[in-house]
Amino acid sequence: MLVKNTNQKLKILFLFAGNSYRSQMAEAGVNISQQRSKRVKEVLDIPFNYVITVCDRARESCPFFPRPVKKIHMSFDGPPFLAKSAKSEEEALIE
Question: Domain ranges in the chain?
Fold first, then answer.
């Protein structure tokens, strides 16, 4: 009989090609002060359950992952794009 360990945490890799803070936020949990964005080469030894690309450029530049993993793509517009029509930094932060 095979019993699945429900206490095992999923390992999820978020890939983004430009804005490095998104991967830090996704990796973070509560305190992100010691987190940093990483290159894919730095995490290849980790057996991820999912690889999620969050921008089209990441999906295009990483069309495969070198080990079996479930891949998901969900594109989000980055803050520079969302705030491009703002007339000031304050207005951009509100966007």
Answer: 12-94
